[in-house]
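Onboarding guide, step 5: your first structure request.
Type a short instruction followed by the sequence, for example:

Predict the 3D structure of this protein.
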Amino acid sequence: MSDRREAPDRDLLDQVAESFTGERDVAVGTMFRSPGLRVGGKIFAFLGHHGQLIVKLPSDRADEFVEAGTAEKVVMGKRTMREWIAFPAREDRAATLTLWRNVAQEAHQYVGSLRQPS
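The system replies with structure tokens like these:
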């Protein structure tokens, strides 16, 4: 997942992406020109411009992370997104990677469950 204009913490996203290597329905994609992961064509996680991992989770689960101080709500323009939250990278990169992998798995399952049956 390399890019000429290396985004902050891109290496962490690359490691998160490696966790999905065996998943046939997961592909690398972009969201707002940032690298991310898709399931069934829908983005479930992407790297924010400031190096934070942004994921889509059910709004109640997203609120839990925000209330715990682990994540922040995502605001696009003047609109606060209900299901999108941002996880900033921590000083402890190993702890960040563990957290990011876990929330990316949750986001993958959630967004995958929203797909229409074929």
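Each response can be followed by summary notes, for example: The domain at 10-110 is CATH 3.30.1460.30 (Yope Regulator; Chain: A,).
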